[in-house]
Amino acid sequence: MRLVLASNNAGKLGELQQLFAPLGVALIRQSELGVGEAEEPFCTFVENALAKARHAAKLTGLPAIADDAGLCVQAFGGLPGVATAYYATQFGYEKGDANNVRALLEQMAGIEDRRAALVSTLVALRSPEDPEPLIAVGRAVGQITREPIGDNGFGFDPVMWLPQFGKTFAQLPALEKNAHSHRGQAARAMLALIRERWL
């Protein structure tokens, strides 16, 4: 089965390709099919993922899968949430992972409540008009460190401390990270849904 991935993020593609390989699902990044980014005007992960999947399915004629993910910080009432990718731009920095981490640590200076969750919502559609989208959510709970630790992963991995491991996501090998990450949890749930409903 071929699925178009409604994202141009190489990190997401790599992680999801590994996770979907056992099902024999080939993920094709939308940019390889000439599809640009969709508008993401909504304030929830599920609405944005649905919009992205519909956009990719409509323009390619293929079943599509989209991920909308982000960091939800307890002390900020769940923000940055859907604005995670652009978090640094609110504080005058260029868009990018390193600047996002820098801005987050600056904004959390002096805050004792470091609880946070990385959340991933996957939506899969057979067609743009599919009335029954498959929806899977994964949530990795931890704490924001006071400085980056580790060299693996991307995004907020260097500052997402996982108490059960005593490490950040950026300190975990890829296979271990995928087994416990928000995206890994959502992908496993999505695989089960695809097996049950589509195959």
Automatic annotation (TrEMBL):
Binds 1 Mg(2+) ion per subunit. Mg(2+) binds at E39, D68. The active site is at D68. The keyword Magnesium applies. Its cofactor is Mg(2+). Belongs to the HAM1 NTPase family. PANTHER family: INOSINE TRIPHOSPHATE PYROPHOSPHATASE (PTHR11067:SF9), INOSINE TRIPHOSPHATE PYROPHOSPHATASE/HAM1 PROTEIN (PTHR11067). This is dITP/XTP pyrophosphatase. It comes from Variovorax defluvii. The gene is rdgB.
